[in-house]
């Protein structure tokens, strides 16, 4: 293994000497947070974008301390018509180390509906020559004020039907060929969902369930496509399918009353001579009910393929079998009189299969040569790198005539199934997360799918065959299921496993975190979190993907956001969600429990999503702009609970859910303490935000308020007779400890003891619900009990994460909603909830010890003591940041036979700096020697500093050793005595 590591570097060195590559150079560029490399059509919805880039060096080992000292950006318009004026902007050489969120500083705003391109180059310290330019990167701007454009245009109609289930609409139009076509830009929205076809082909085929779900009357999303390569002179045809999605009553639980699906469409064709032509949705279109007879997010789809018309979106289509009628004008879904807006969808869409997930980490352990499969252990479930489409791993006959398939992984999507049978033959399919008990039955046929926990959601699809003589493939269009098992009732032919494949469906994103260790329990939890997190990204963060719920529950979103941002690139996704939250924020500042939704007021641990997500997006991306945009909304939210507080105090602070679902038979701890925690937590975040933004007055005001509340919290909830908070339960101690300044120094040790003793008394188990579980692991690690935190996370007995996949009922591949899932009823019992996935943040923040929240990266892997080191002998973690890849991996006591040492590999991306902190490996431990490469850089004997150019600090109280480093690859060894 070792050789692999060094040999790779040697090989790269060799390569470097022969190819004479120009380096460093900027790459993986972002504009307005859009990752250029993964966008086919960059639509930049701002007149003043910002840019980020990474700097590549051929190999980090060869180049340390790579620092940008200057950059240059050039931006120009792309002339498409004879009338277009050329616009050019050159930043010139700007002396700056800034390589992320670099603003466009041109004098003129970018104009709407134009094409531009830009390129970047950089200067690096100690190198005279600038880097090469990036290629010219093309983007376009949309109509900036879409809302005004759409509402002021009398010829443009929302169309649909109140008379028939009009879910297929089409229109043919003539493009004159007087002047060459230079661009063709479409805007489309179809509620609840649409699919868009042009001249017989689907536009952007992997895009699904578009547009994103919103509070439609407040915000309706519209999507733009560049069809310049597809529209040709002469006749063209567009076809649009419409689905109900979240616009339908079936999902709304009697909330807003929406009507039938509706479509808006704008196509603008621009010719070389400057002329334009437009096609709008209006009553010149025709529509009919297509092959989809019913579609519902919860209840699946009924499709009669005998009604498919293969050429319906082609020119010259003629359908003698069905009636195509004129659509009616429909009201706009956005309630204009209540400030409803039509806005551009400015986040990655939901996609199916391999297009849904991109990678910025290397997940193949062979390549990294550090942890191998023996270290990692056997993993249950599918791999994210397997291409985004799952195949069954086993199938069997369950009830008579029912074929059941197991994908081996709980996931979200649907199945693509190949059938062969007579026309008119109907097949029924159901989806489930688990099998009926007992799974261990020897009778195979008893293994039916279990659907009771889906509650009223039928999660079923019905397909009527058209009778294709060869075969036909069915996959649903406007529904999505959360499942691991598929049952097909009365299939027309003998199906094999090859006839079934199931795309994984979620909002498009990039995997940016990879975390594996020598502890197989932790690895499986990480697996389950990543699959669970992706499963719950369906244009907004959902609680679960399978039953009649799937909502933007704010508590779940707040608990998972830190973990989610470590694992996936989601800045646009969360900006969109923050917009959805403020859409429904009332004038008094309150927000609902779930969004879209109207469950006001929120439980404070649910409403916290607004401040928490704002803060976490800022932390993970160092993006101050996010704070600026949402700051006033956070203030208003905090002020809402401030005014509530004035009449309740903390002792009676309002509660709806408290520390939701602790493990039975454990009760919930004092619920007012739990909600008071959220209130203080949010004020604390607000203080931090105001500091970043330099709002000194707010900092002062909220600091005074926080100090007062911190005292009150202690007074109200601390029992001086027993020296613990509330009833002594874990949750109460953890939440008090998690709030800075609440627990006075003189009782801190007693409170920590209470927590630790209780965990031990419970046989090393938690008694915590969702709110305090998110805090307990970091609190233990930060307060001298990292060993115990590791023991807790390694547990496989009830209640524990490990129990979810080692019990005798189910090998869970995602995270459960309930600690006691197999032991309790179906009513509320999802096997794919993300709220308990919160622990995933601790994997990165403490186990790997990576903190990227300031421009100085901190690497401080928490170490198990010598006696518990078997719990985490090895760890390997990659985290992709806007600067590039951070890589941290360690092995305990590996090199030499000498014990009490740790070998730590660290890679810091170019233009970043880090401090690496080494912890003593036992209480009172003192560092003996620090080695980097093979050289001693610090030794207790001579106590010399700055050897070999390293700046090193020793903290004599804690024993912590801090080494400051620039970019590059390092191999440290710390020996302790
Ligand atoms: C539109 O043109 C692009 C570029 O040639 C092509 O990749 C895409 O498949 C076309 N789409 C349709 C619907 O024809
Ligand atoms: C659909 O169009 C294609 C290409 O124009 C043609 O070959 C085919 O026969 C048409 N199919 C039907 C059912 O009309
Ligand atoms: C869980 O997986 C193990 C193999 O890792 C297997 O032996 C066991 O039967 C599985 N349990 C269930 C309930 O599927």
Automatic annotation (TrEMBL):
The keyword Magnesium does not apply. Residues 1-21 form the signal peptide. This is alpha-L-rhamnosidase. It comes from Rotaria sordida. The keyword Signal applies. Keywords: Signal. Residues 400-505 form the Alpha-L-rhamnosidase concanavalin-like domain. Residues 512-846 form the Alpha-L-rhamnosidase six-hairpin glycosidase domain. GO terms for molecular function: alpha-L-rhamnosidase activity. The lineage of its organism: Eukaryota, Metazoa, Spiralia, Gnathifera, Rotifera.
